Amino acid sequence: MSVQCLTGHPGIGPAVTGTALVAADNFSARYDLDRIRGVFSRPSHKLFGESYVDRILVLNAAKGGVATAWMLKEMRERRLAPLALLLNFANPIMAQAAAFAEMPLIDRFEGDVTAALKSGDRLEIVPSTGEVRVLA
Amino acid sequence: MRLSDEERAMRDGAHGEARRWAIEQQIAVGEFFDAEDLVAITQVHIHADAEAVGVAGIEFLEKMLEEPAEGRRFAVPVVSDPRGADFRRASELNYDQGLLANEARLRDVLAALGVLMTDTCIVYQCVLPPVRGEHIAFGDTGSVIYSNSVCGARSNYEGGPAALAAAITGRTPRYGFHLSERRRGTCRYGFADPPRHLTDWGAIGALIGRQQGSYWEVPYIVADGPAPSSDALKHMGAAMASYGSTAMYHLEGVTPEWREGALEGDAVTIGRADIEAFYASFAPSREELDVVVFAAPQLSLYEMQQLAGLLEGRRVSGNTAVLVAVPPETKSGCDRLGLTAMIEASGAMVLEGVCFYQMHARELGEANGWRVLMSNSTKLVNIISGYGYEPVLASMRQCVESAVAGRIVR
Description:
heterodimer; A: 136 residues; alpha/beta; two-stranded antiparallel sheet; 4 helices; 10 strands; B: 410 residues; 5-stranded parallel sheet; 4-stranded parallel sheet; globular
């Protein structure tokens, strides 16, 4: 049952349903992840040690370099990828990565998406309309 | 997005599968950022190291190579970012053979597609600097921020697939830093004390960068004193981009668009105490150094001269590896000028066409027992902790003293 709906800018990728992993921190696949083990590996990251595999990552802004543009596709092929990305602010690299990997991405929400959602929320996300529904 | 007849034909597949893929990628990204159309570009800088590209990316590129040549021919010159291995020295660094094989596959397919394998992140110092107003598609954060800020060219961050798409279509979506209105200052900064060396410039870049809320911020910086060198702005920009996802800044009185980008009002002032606190924030668990790295960005000829002078007649500790990364073109110059020999006589290793964090740094660290790493690169110390290292930031002189001592010299 839908109890809450958030709206961002229309995004990229297919609609999916999954479980949120949320932090008021930023994101770069190269800087923050151990992509072999599927966990956050940057000691200063708020999700350090957490598995991101098959989770809808809900974070603040895209940071760091350009490598994520390639990395998301490789991570999906190896089944060690997040299910989707919800960000307050994507940068071009995240959008290019999502387009290349066909991974759902939405950003530019009406408020702070990291405050509106919490880890463990079940979410349905619809990039074509920019909508995120909290299912439970 | 508004498309020309030619662009619609690309989208509809009339120019082959490669151009259809490329323009569909660009339309998806352009619509995401509300681009009205595509803009013609003149050159591309493509990031593609094997650790980032992965097997999936290599196979994608190999499949593209199977397309008819006319359908995938690049519309503009394309140059490459650093590779993940210097094959001449790989055996000395205990590379995994499987990773080396991937590097070779990637190198070969990029070259076959038509990429000029310049293997450098500092194209603006050693290939062909873009000019003011030139629309480009550059794919290294350091080359983008330098080109936008110091050269006055126009580029967004174009990751590898996007740079490839731009190479094939000769266009890129017109949003972000291709638009004049996105290039104005959004936050004002000042220096209380002049930077003492290149690493201070990097630290200032990091302190500014980490305050930026998103890619769309443009720091406007006021600083007294003489105009900084290209290397100073290289270090500041690379760090700002790394910490902030920042793609452009203005430096009052120095960078070409500072008047158009000017921002009045109170400035956030960065002082010596801020810089020293930033250095102090890197505190490894032990003093013994495993590896000292000069890279990220690759070194210019002048930096190589400075490093050679600091190492001349000295010997680095047998317990500490010292790696120096330069573009191939700069390496040739350093060989001819005797700088490579001066540096390597100390026991340091000069690597060409690579950058440390792109060299499968996690696996190299495990293979060589490297954990405590010192560098004069603010960008590198930001990246490398995620690869299992404990980084320390210091000036080039301190790095050399520490490499000789085999432990951190403060």
